[in-house]
TrEMBL record:
Claim: Secreted is one of the keywords in the record: no
Pfam families: ABC_tran (PF00005)
SUPFAM superfamilies: P-loop containing nucleoside triphosphate hydrolases (SSF52540)
Chain ranges of the ABC transporter domain: 9-239
UniProt name for this protein: ABC transporter ATP-binding protein
Domain of life: Bacteria
UniProt entry tagged with the keyword Protease: no
Any GO MF annotation of the entry: ATP binding
This protein's UniProt keywords: ATP-binding, Nucleotide-binding, Transport
Entry similarity comment: Belongs to the ABC transporter superfamily.
Native organism taxonomy: Bacteria, Bacillati, Actinomycetota, Actinomycetes, Micromonosporales
Species of origin: Rugosimonospora africana
């Protein structure tokens, strides 16, 4: 469904400094509408920092982010209306039950209560969270927290989903379910960008990939362009410059 019009997400010159630490060192990225975009990178590469700036959760030191042409920082209402976000778990209001959290999200979005109730019920059902009842989200397992976070991101039917490690901590069944839901979402005109370490998932579902290391984009393009006929994992290790064990380390183990 790539339509070649305004990118769903456009990042220009994004920089983030934490005191002396340069976490993101100037990122430019175009996420085409209708793409399923994987943002790969090793631990500490700057993925979360980059996505947090892209969605208006963290103010950039420099640079701009646009959601479907709307500047996230200058025009936040229009940008956020079109945006669903799965942040890292620290940012969730987790002293609520799943249905309460969804109701809270829906009301913040200005949705009518009956629409919230219908959609929340469906989302909890599809994601296998209906049985959790009144359990507070803080007491959910890590995988359940991912799923309720995804439900919150989907509730207002956004045009762009930005997901921080949606496949982390979820079991294979839940992972496959999330993949199916996201696939359907992209097939019906939505756009997804997500961060991940899981090469198989990225290789299986993404149309586009960017590899981030040391706060900079090291490789970017369609999956086939970046892979260039090789395993994505080999490309990743080469681009990122992974350390290879010589067998001489940890000899005391
Ligand atoms: N609030 C902060 N204060 C200081 N340094 C930070 C802060 N947030 C992130 N950093 C640093 O910025 C760098 C990038 O972190 P970030 O969390 O964006 O990486 P990541 O690619 O998401 O990593 P991971 O895959 O391990 O989650 C790291 O060196 C991290 O220590």
């Amino acid at each position: 469904m790539l339509d070649g019009t305004v990118p769903a997400l456009k990042l220009r010159g994004l920089v983030k400094r934490f005191d002396a630490k340069l976490a993101v060192g100037g990122v430019d990225l175009d996420v085409p509408t209708g793409s399923f975009y994987g943002l790969l990178g090793p631990n500490g590469a700057g993925k979360t920092t980059c996505l947090s700036m892209a969605v208006g959760l963290l103010r950039p030191s420099q640079g701009r982010a646009y959601v479907l042409g709307h500047d996230v920082w200058a025009d936040p209402v229009e940008a956020k209306r079109r945006l669903g976000v799965l942040p890292d778990s620290v940012r969730m209001f987790d002293r609520l039950s799943g249905p309460e959290l969804l109701a809270y999200q829906g009301l913040l979005r200005g949705m009518p209560p009956d629409l919230i109730e219908t959609r929340a019920g469906e989302l909890l059902d599809v994601l296998g969270l209906a049985d959790a009842g009144r359990t507070l989200v803080v007491d959910y397992s890590a995988g359940m927290k991912k799923k309720i976070g995804l439900a919150c991101a989907l509730l207002h039917a956004p045009r762009l989903l930005v997901l921080d490690e949606p496949f982390e901590s979820v079991d294979p069944v839940a992972g496959s379910l999330i993949r199916d839901i996201l696939h359907r979402y992209v097939e019906t005109g939505g756009t997804v960008i997500f961060s991940s370490h899981v090469m198989e998932v990225v290789e299986k579902i993404c149309t586009h990939v960017a590899i981030l290391a040391d706060g900079r984009i090291k490789a970017v393009g369609t999956l086939n362009e970046v892979r260039a006929g090789r395993d994505l994992e080999d490309v990743f290790v080469e681009v990122v410059g992974g350390r290879v064990a010589t067998g001489e380390e940890l000899t005391w183990l």
